[in-house]
Design goal:
Layout lengths: L9 E2 L4 E3 L4 E7 L5 E15 L4 E7 L1 E6 L6 E4 L3 E4 L4 E17 L1
Antiparallel strand pairs: 1-3, 2-3, 3-4, 4-9, 5-8, 5-9, 6-7, 6-9
Length: 106
């Protein structure tokens, strides 16, 4: 299971809101210049582009992911993660409930 508490982080209060509030996250900034986002993904299917490589840790719920160039979907449950290359994209869908995640920018 990934780290779920982050001491000595600066929290950006302004939410990152996507898809009419169906995906919402908050940014954490660290002294070393790194950042993470903590978020919720509500039921639906969404497409995201990436600038930097990302590691998405699923901390609650279940989702399915299709990375750019792949045909099939892969299921991820709480305690699992997937990586997305920089300058790429992915589709993510939540069939029911809410999926919670921590996104680390690598």
């Amino acid at each position: 299971m990934p780290q779920t508490e982050f001491p000595n982080a600066t929290v950006v209060a302004k939410a990152n809101v996507y898809f009419d509030g169906r995906v919402v996250s908050h940014t954490l900034k660290f002294a070393d210049g790194s950042k993470k986002t903590l978020g919720l993904i509500f039921t639906g299917e969404y497409h995201f582009g990436t600038d930097a490589p990302e590691r998405m840790d699923i901390t609650a719920g279940t989702c399915e992911v299709r990375l750019h160039g792949e045909e099939g979907w892969t299921k991820y449950e709480a305690g699992s993660f997937f990586k997305v290359p920089g300058k790429s994209s992915f589709d993510i869908k939540v069939g029911s409930g809410i999926a919670e995640y921590i996104c680390s920018f690598e």
